[in-house]
Amino acid sequence: MSLAESATSEQTPSESSAPDAAAPPVQVLPANHLMDTVLPVRPALVDRGSAARVKPGMLAELVGSGSAQAMVLSGRQALVSDSSLVLLDAAELAGHLANTPYAPEHVIYLGSALAGSDLDAGTELVLFVLPLQFEVRAEEFEAHVAGIPSDAQWAGFREVAARLNATDTALFVEASAIANWHATHTHCPRCGTPTQPEAGGWVRRCPADNSEHFPRTDPAIIVTVVGPDGRLLLGGGGPLDARNYSTLAGFVEPGESLEQAVQREIGEEVGVRVTASQYLGSQSWPFPASLMLGFTATTPDTEVRPDGVEVTRARWFSRSELQDAVLSGEIVISSRLSIARSLIEHWYGGVIEDAADSA
Q1: 307: left (phi over 0), alpha (psi -120 to 50) or beta
Q2: What is the rounded average pLDDT for all residues in the chain?
Q3: Which end of the chain is more exposed for a tag (fewer CB within 10 A), N or C?
Q4: Would you call 31 exposed, middle or buried from its count of C-beta atoms within 10 A (0-12, 13-18, 19+)?
Q5: Cα distance between the two ends of the chain
Q6: What pLDDT digit, counting tens, does each position of 237-282 carry?
Q7: How far apart are CA 120 and CA 68, in angstroms?
Q8: Average pLDDT over residues 181-210
Q9: 3-state class percentages of the chain: helix first, strand second, coil last, to nearest 5
Q10: pLDDT of 15 higher than 50
Q11: pLDDT band at residue 13 under the 50/70/90 scheme
């Protein structure tokens, strides 16, 4: 029986006939049986309000209500105080910045805090995207706006990610993704006319041909490759004597399935064949606009041929070899914030100690 025939069979598991004497028993799963994802799924902490934000005038009304909090972003940097994002009263901030050189290029709806977040449930959140030049004129901005803590700093996500709570992390990632899209998609791809933001900043419309344009995300596969003896293949780019090693990754091309992308990218980058792959989980990485789709894959090959462009170094590691190399400082692997580290530790079967852990 083909998979299609099996899927449409009217026979239920309890009605299945006894197997032939020569055939092993087959476990029949309930229809639409779902397996838990292998990597942990972090719950959403912000409701992005896709239905509410399409209401005309919704954003201006929300900002003017005095009930919304504003995150501030300039380029890739946000205002951070101690270990938290600086959130300001949106109405007061809009009043301070109106008709000044500090007026934001965009005001975007981020959503409302959900129960379980680090903010009061229902807290409305907006993003003020400042002109890029204020990355280097931060003191002028801070002096002009009331309510900014004296210890506030402008910082990129990588600088502060390890210190932020889960809600601030989610907001920083979301804000970076949507701000990057606005910065790089200012004109209609059909006719070149400058587009205008709508729907709380989540749509850009062309006034010439009325076409709508939506934020884009570029899918990329990221893979742990396991050899026939169970060892893990890690690679790195740059100088041959560099110490950084990580999982292999690449973008999905038009017309490819994710599994095909895994096979192609691994073949191109390190010259080994992938015979099987399995999806494990994902992580948004909007710097500028990626969604990392994590896989583990197996290969019968042991000889590695780095392409010399994206991958200049590649090594096989047993579990003990990897842990010893990390602890000794011989190599450095991806940080615990990344899906790459989650994939490596999934293969390892536990937490890999860093040199700093034992210092």
Answers
A1: alpha
A2: 87
A3: C
A4: exposed
A5: 60
A6: 999 999 999 999 999 999 999 999 999 999 999 999 999 999 999 9
A7: 12
A8: 96
A9: 30, 25, 45
A10: no
A11: very low
Instruction: Name the strand (E) or helix (H) holding 184.
Output: helix 166-184
Give the DSSP H/E element, type plus range, for residue 266: helix 258-270
Beta bridge partners of 103: none
Nearest by Cα to 258 from 214, 213, 216, 295: 295
Q: Using the structure block, give the residue that is written with the tokens 């003017």.
A: 64
Q: Strands 87-89, 153-156: parallel, antiparallel or unpaired by DSSP?
A: unpaired
Q: Quick check: 319 and 231 in contact, CB under 8 A? A: no
**Secondary structure class of 239 (helix, strand, coil):** coil
Quote the CA–CA distance of 135 and 146 in Å, as a whole number: 18
Percentage, residues of the chain above pLDDT 90: 70
Residue with tokens 């995300």: 217
270 φ, ψ to 5°?
Answer: -130, 0
Backbone angles phi, psi at 49, to 5 degrees: 60, 50
Reading the block at residue 197, the tokens are 């933001």
- How many CB atoms neighbour CB 356 within 10 A? 7
Look-up: residue for tokens 């990392």?
292
Tokens 């300039």 correspond to: 74
**Residue 113: both structure tokens together:** 């805090």
Kindly report the number of other CB atoms within 10 A of residue 355's CB atom. Answer: 12
Sign for the CA dihedral angle at 224, 227, 232, 235 comes to negative
State the pLDDT at residue 127: 97
For residue 312, what are the contacts with CB-CB under 8 A and spacing of at least 6?
Answer: 236, 237, 238, 239, 240, 242, 306
Angle, alpha carbons 185-219-76 (nearest 5°)? 50
- pLDDT at site 130: 87
* Phi, psi angles (nearest 5°) of residue 71: -95, 145
123-168 pLDDT, tens digit per residue, is 999 999 988 655 545 565 666 676 788 788 889 998 999 899 999 9
